[in-house]
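Good morning,

Attaching, inline, the backbone tokens for the sequence recovery test we're adding to the shared suite. The designed sequence is right after.
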């Protein structure tokens, strides 16, 4: 959607402030893309050339495995190294207000006063895959802002949160003993998205068995073009294992930067993103050209009476918009 000259001037002002390190401009721009503002395309076109410098890690796993606590420990570790950190924490949406129910900013509130840390909690708004529809854009804005490390924490929806692999450079899959996660992974094929596997709450009974199960499954999977995903035991409450996890996140980032794997992954992610944007624009165009769905409503009676099947009805619509 085209925007006016005044809008473009205002947004360019925000972009300039963002690149100069203004946190208020950062917050405002993320809000605009999250709310699908008309300026969104202009914002992302302006931001895109300034991206590609930050380390982007996705933290995913089933509810209750300790993702937020582990992310909090990773933030502290990065800050101890003098790195700036951005976090996009995606929470499930309220079915009534559309807002975030949980609030990772509350769970990470000890970081809120640190000027080197920016935390944004985003509602999923019904978007499948464990992420918000604006997650990718928010990460890019944080990258352009100059954050050294960006963590994406998914809402924890189990087998459906495969979308994180399309957003992050490195995907950390968090498990916990006694949750049956390893069995669910075998069912869903979720093993394919993990670059690093973490067995958190490793002080619990069954932690070693969970590690063994994951390592056994990884032996049955081919390595990712030379990268064999490590399995790490952690205790987020005490910080045990977090340094090793950080080391492996850095190692995977270096691995991607040095070989063809990183470029192949980036191209695949960009391809998926372009197709996703195109699909959304086509859906919006079809909705508009059928007079905001009225043509579909007009066909429903015919389909309901079994005089047309859904495929034939779709064909009629194609003729209408063709």
């Amino acid at each position: 959607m085209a925007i006016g000259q005044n809008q473009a001037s205002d947004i360019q002002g925000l972009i300039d402030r963002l690149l100069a390190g203004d946190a208020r401009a950062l917050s405002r721009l993320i809000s605009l893309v999250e709310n699908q503002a008309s300026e969104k395309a202009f914002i992302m076109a302006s931001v895109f050339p300034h991206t590609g410098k930050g380390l982007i890690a996705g933290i995913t796993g089933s509810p209750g495995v300790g993702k937020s606590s582990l992310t909090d420990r990773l933030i502290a570790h990065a800050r101890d190294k003098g790195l700036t950190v951005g976090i996009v924490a995606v929470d499930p949406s309220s079915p009534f207000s559309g807002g975030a129910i949980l609030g990772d900013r509350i769970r990470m509130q000890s970081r809120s006063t640190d000027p080197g840390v920016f935390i944004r909690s985003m509602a999923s708004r019904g978007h499948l895959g464990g992420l918000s529809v604006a997650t990718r854009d928010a990460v890019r804005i944080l990258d352009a802002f100059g954050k050294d490390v960006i963590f994406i924490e998914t809402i924890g929806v189990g087998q459906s949160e495969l979308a994180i692999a399309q957003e992050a450079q490195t995907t950390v899959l968090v498990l916990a003993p006694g949750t049956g996660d390893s069995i669910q992974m075998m069912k869903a094929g979720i093993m394919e998205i993990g670059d690093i596997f973490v067995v958190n709450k490793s002080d619990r009974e069954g932690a070693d068995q969970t590690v063994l199960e994951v390592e056994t499954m990884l032996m049955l999977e081919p390595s990712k073009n030379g990268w064999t995903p490590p399995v790490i035991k952690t205790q987020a409450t005490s910080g045990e294992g977090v340094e090793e996890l950080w080391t492996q996140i850095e190692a995977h980032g270096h691995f991607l930067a040095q070989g063809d794997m990183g470029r192949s992954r980036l191209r695949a992610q960009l391809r998926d993103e372009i197709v996703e944007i195109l699909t959304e624009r086509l859906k919006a165009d079809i909705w508009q050209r059928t007079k905001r769905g009225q043509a579909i409503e007009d066909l429903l009676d015919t389909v309901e009476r079994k005089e047309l099947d859904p495929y034939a009805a779709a064909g009629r619509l194609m003729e209408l918009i063709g």
